[in-house]
Amino acid sequence: MSKARDIVETLRTVLVDGDVTNANFTGADLEISKGGTGASSTGAARTALGVAIGTDVLAPDGDGSGLTGVDSLPSQTSQTGKFLTTNGSAASWGEVGGAGWTLLSTVNMAGASTANVETTFNSTYDYYHIVGTGIKVTTSLDIECRLKVNGSYDNQWNYRYHLIRMRSNSSSITNAKSSGYTAIPIDSMIGTNTDADAVCHFTMDVFNPTDSVANHMVSFDTLHSESSHMSRFSGMGGFNPATGTLTGVRFLTTGTSFSAGTLKLYGIKKA
């Protein structure tokens, strides 16, 4: 009974003290200061209370453009895979990984005596990254590359390189270098495609291809396996003298041809 008396006393106090009067129950809007909404409809009540949908709070399907004191969001139409960014005053959509990798081209090496990577070497990117995977050859000889400078692949004695080689069946590290060769070797004596374990993978970075004055250079890291051992080649090479911009990289084998392999060219975007 004690609880019931408390409720009755609370109602009596409210009614007697004038917070709520009979007029409030006969059609007049109950004031906000007295616990009401100050309105007789849902929409008017939200407005009176400062929670109007689309103006004070975000509608379930809204973009926020009508919210007071809140910056609007840009349209999402045709922006798949992008991220929201801002310049400090307005929001916009940016490419994912604004300073990341962009795949530019893919080359299938199977059956080719040479495989050329020539897509979009320009100043759009800080540098370019070539990934070679699953490479096999028909004859057990070297894999090399040449650079396309001033519109053609030079095959003269204009290449310089230095590389080191590590083998799983030897504790020694060997190196090779040249100040005048017809190409840049990136792998040596890989087994033929008759050896199921014989395969080569490599990565190569190409820097500043639009420079027409300085020497064009690449760095590379190569892994290859055979039934008897595994090897790693790491090195660098370049074309000297520089006579123009670099627009391509050609991969070739000193044997007959490639029997398998894929090349992918990525551009590393400027931040």
Helix content: under 10%
The succession of helices and strands, N to C, reads HHEEEEEEEEEEEEEEE
CATH C-level category of the largest domain: Mainly Beta
The largest sheet is: 8 strands, antiparallel
Strand content: 35-45%
Structural class: mainly beta
Corresponding CATH architecture of the largest domain: Sandwich
Question: What's the Cα radius of gyration?
Answer: 36 Å
- Major β-sheet strand ordering: 3-15-5-11-12-13-8-9
| Form type | elongated
Distance between the termini: 74 Å
User: Which regions contain 5 or more consecutive residues with pLDDT less than 50?
Assistant: none
Mean pLDDT: 79
Number of beta strands: 15
CATH-assigned fold name of the largest domain: Jelly Rolls
The number of helical runs is 2
The tally of structural domains comes to: 2
How would you characterize the overall build of this protein?
The protein is mainly beta and 271 residues long. The protein has 2 domains: 2-71, no CATH class; 101-269, Jelly Rolls (Sandwich), CATH 2.60.120. Helices cover 9% and strands 42% of the residues. It has helices at 2-17, 42-49; strands at residues 83-86, 91-94, 101-108, 114-117, 125-137, 143-149, 152-153, 159-167, 173-181, 184-187, 199-207, 216-225, 230-239, 246-253, 258-269. It has an 8-stranded antiparallel sheet, with no helix packed on it. It starts with a helix and ends with a strand.
Keywords:
Jelly Rolls, 5-stranded antiparallel beta sheet, 271 residues, elongated, 2 domains, 8-stranded antiparallel beta sheet, mainly beta, 9% helix
